[in-house]
Design brief:
Rossmann fold, 808 residues, 14 strands, alpha+beta, 4 domains
Length: 808
């Protein structure tokens, strides 16, 4: 802020000369040559609905603490009367006898007003002093020339104190105070221009008059690109008409604004709009304040994650503690960043559910619950809640999902609810006698821990809880019986037989029946996939967070659900089954068809024979509880409910405030709201969901194999649909033309990334994010070609094996 200064001079009035002048300066600079671009703007005092009172910086508070410098070669009556007059006004007076003293005093005190004696022989010295202050080279003495030289007001020699008082007060009010208000307005402008919230000022027609620099940083527009544009060209709001009615009445309004960015997709920002008026009662300006501080802290990281999975940024500090003396754990700081990014990314996904809008609206309403305008937001929330499918996802109009047909097909098939069945044709799938048949067909099973299989399998299982565990090596060594060997090993580690009070022999039989009920001809949804999900679930439950939340029976239920979550999977999607009108579609009314089948068959097989019934020793209440948990977790793998489960998990388990978040994710184990039964259920759902789609988070060689297998299964489904003249669920998944790399990129972008970031922030397992980024980079590199087939995947695997062998 520039301080306002001034100088005077006195002499007799001879009618031909300007004997005294006043110069008001900003920090010694000529006001006509400002280097500050903000100094060229006009400011007006704005009156509005907010009452600033006496604290308003630009209000007139009276001439207090005014500093005056008198430059007189010697004391005389005129200097004495000026000293007396200033002291009577309560002003501070300094006196100088020559130019050197005047310059030294001015540089130390920086006076508001300088009065220079320019009478008679003092004229040349007065001009020299003025030149010191103004750096002017003018020596002429005519009125206009002296004004041009730096003086801007003349005082006639006067000994009347009352006249001098009025004269000095007028100078201060009309010159000094006006410049002070302008300088203060400049400081307010600078504060608004540099603040971290995005701010727009429009006229009463919502035409932008001012935008601060955050607009350029956040939205990508240059300031001259938005000035004089109508706000709705870059900012839209669903209930704009209601908002505008409130503003025209002089009432503040609140809402979520959809902001169009120049180079990226749109973002939704909570906004507060304040009406202001310069005259009368009708608002003449609207002040839009967007809460963008959090976005600016993470926008670069979020954009990098969306565009290419960057390395974790470790230099960011937790909010409000950038210079704190206490130490920070780098892992916790990175985890906090990932957690914040995951929440922000959830709200920026191109797929949105109405419940997400409700959460945002109610969160905004709770922040300002004391304001009457909150009623409008709550009414809007109630309208949305009246809809029947609160979590039914749909693609946002502004989303870019439809730009990639492969991604659109894949994500659409995963999240879309099946169509109604066209007929009631039945399949021959019958489970009668399945248990006995499987037990007879399978080879004899080891019955003790010392007889768990070949030595190679035992050595491999020693690392069964490592995230790098090679499930495909176990598949080969066990001759595609990985679920049996890995399941028995992990369930013994977690003490499942003891918790279920069943004999180990019964558990061995049960695993045999479950694995035998998986379709070995499926390239992806087979027992190896079930074993992989089981292993991921077991690894997740090693985290301190889950140890504090899940009891022994919860852990047992989670392992059982993981092992059985895809039992008897036919290798096609629920959409295919519904389109074909198969028995399962009719049985389950086209709703979560496969997941319902997996859950029902799990218990049908388990209860069919006492030799495989692992629940037979449980009391009624315990059995009812564990059965409910298993069914709930299996049904949670239904991808049509993906965004519902993710939104609930982020909303409840991440808590939408900085304070609650810091408590919730502290290292200390506490009795937080997470321990409530319904929230533990949400955590278990998220756990099995993350385990089910963990392929992109596995080491690269495992990720490639899983990608090849799921693509093969989708290719077979497309071929079957074409052969049977059924609707083709994923048209782009043609064996000869589909890009597996592109499908994996879309799967990570729209399904995996946001969920895994939230999950990693919750249990602190950085390996999953590290692997996702590495694998994503590989797929990005290979997505440059339009086609990346199964054969291309195999060549990539060979090159990877060669690279590993050369490295070792």
């Amino acid at each position: 802020m520039s301080s306002v200064k001034g100088r005077f001079s006195f002499s007799k009035d001879d009618g031909d000369e300007l004997q005294s002048s006043l110069r008001l300066l900003f920090n010694g600079q000529d006001s006509n040559h400002s280097n500050n671009p903000t100094d060229n703007m006009d400011f007006h005092q704005i009156k509005g609905t907010s009452d600033f009172g006496s604290s308003w910086l630009t209000s007139n508070t009276g001439a207090v603490n005014v500093k005056v410098l008198l430059v007189f070669a010697q004391d005389d009556r005129q200097s004495d009367i000026l000293v007396q007059t200033c002291e009577k006004l309560g002003w501070h007076v300094s006196e100088a006898r020559n130019a050197d003293e005047a310059l030294e005093l001015f540089q130390t005190h920086y006076h508001d007003i300088v009065i220079i004696d320019r009478r008679g022989v003092q004229r040349q010295q007065a001009d020299d002093i003025c030149r010191f202050f103004t750096e002017s080279n003018q020596d002429e003495c005519t009125t206009l020339q002296v004004l041009d030289a730096g003086f801007n007001r003349a005082l006639i020699e006067c000994s009347n104190q009352k006249i001098l008082i009025n004269e000095l007060i007028g100078i201060h009010a009309n010159e000094v105070q006006a410049k002070l208000q302008l300088a203060t307005a400049h400081s307010l402008y600078l504060a608004v221009h540099r603040c971290r919230d995005m701010i727009h000022v429009t006229n009463d027609r919502h035409v932008i008059q001012f935008a601060n620099e955050v607009t350029e940083k956040l939205l990508g527009y240059k300031l001259d690109e938005v000035i004089n544009k109508n706000l709705n060209e870059i900012i839209t709001c669903e209930n704009f008409n209601l908002m505008n009615q409130l503003l025209q009445k002089g009432l503040e309004s609140y809402g979520n604004m959809n902001c169009k960015r120049k180079f990226n997709g749109p973002i939704t920002i909570s906004s507060r709009i304040i009406p202001f008026c310069t005259h009368g009662r009708r608002p003449t300006h609207y002040i839009y304040i967007y809460d963008t501080t959090y976005l600016l802290e993470n926008i670069e990281e979020i954009e990098k994650i969306k565009c290419g999975w960057p390395h974790t940024v470790s230099h960011l500090h937790p909010r409000g503690s950038a210079h704190s003396s206490r130490s920070f754990d780098v892992g916790s700081v990175n985890s906090d960043l990932q957690r914040r990014c995951s929440i922000a990314k959830l709200h920026n996904l191109p797929i949105e559910a109405p419940i997400t809008k409700v959460i945002t609206l109610l969160t905004s309403a709770m922040m300002d619950a004391a304001l009457p305008e909150v009623v409008n937001q709550i009414n809007k929330a109630i309208e949305i809640l009246k809809t029947t499918e609160l979590f039914a996802p749909y693609v946002k109009e502004s989303g870019d999902l439809t730009n990639d047909p492969i991604t659109s097909d894949l994500i659409g098939a995963l999240i879309s609810a099946p169509l109604y069945a066209r007929d009631s044709r039945r399949s021959s799938n019958d489970s009668v006698g399945r248990v006995q048949r499987i037990l007879r067909q399978q080879s004899p099973k080891p019955t003790s821990r010392s007889q768990r299989g070949p030595r190679e399998i035992e050595l491999l299982l020693e690392n069964s809880l490592s995230w790098e565990f090679d499930i495909f090596k176990l598949e080969m060594l066990s001759e595609k019986r990985s679920l049996f060997y890995l399941g028995m090993h992990i369930m013994n580690l977690y003490g499942v037989p003891a918790q279920l009070k069943c004999e180990e022999r019964v558990l061995l039989n049960w695993l045999t029946v479950i694995e035998g009920s998986y379709n070995v001809q499926n390239s992806y949804h087979n027992s190896t996939h079930a074993a992989d999900v089981l292993q991921a679930t077991a690894r997740f439950m090693m985290s301190d967070r889950l140890k504090s939340l899940l009891g022994p029976l919860d852990q047992a239920a989670a392992l059982i659900a993981a092992a059985t979550h895809d039992v008897d999977h036919p290798g096609v999607t629920s959409q295919f089954i519904c389109n074909a009108g198969q028995r399962l579609a009719v049985l389950y009314n086209d709703i979560s068809v496969l997941e319902s089948h997996h859950a029902a068959l799990t218990f049908k097989l388990t209860l069919a024979d006492s030799e495989v019934n692992i629940f037979k020793a449980l009391d009624r209440d315990t059995y009812k509880s564990i059965r409910q948990n298993i069914i709930d977790m299996i049904l949670a793998t239904d991808m049509t409910k993906h965004y519902e489960h993710l939104a609930k998990f982020v909303n409840i388990c991440s808590v939408q405030s900085e304070e609650s978040m810091s408590e919730l994710y502290s290292d200390a184990v506490d009795s937080s709201p997470l321990s409530m039964a319904e929230n533990v259920t949400l955590v278990k759902r998220m756990m099995i969901k993350c385990a089910d789609v963990s392929n992109p988070a596995r080491p690269l060689k495992l990720c490639i194999e899983w990608s090849k297998r799921i693509a093969e299964e989708y290719f077979r489904q497309t071929e079957a649909e074409q052969e049977r003249n059924l609707p083709v669920t994923m048209p782009t998944f043609e064996r000869s033309s589909c890009s597996i790399a592109a499908s994996q990129i879309g799967f990570v972008d729209y399904i995996v990334s946001g969920m895994m970031e939230a999950w990693d922030a919750f249990i602190d397992l950085p390996e999953i994010i590290k692997n996702i980024r590495q694998n994503y980079g590989i797929w990005k590199e290979h997505s440059k070609s339009e086609i990346f087939t199964v054969q291309d995947c195999e060549r990539l695997q060979q090159s990877l094996k060669l690279h590993i062998s050369q490295s070792t």
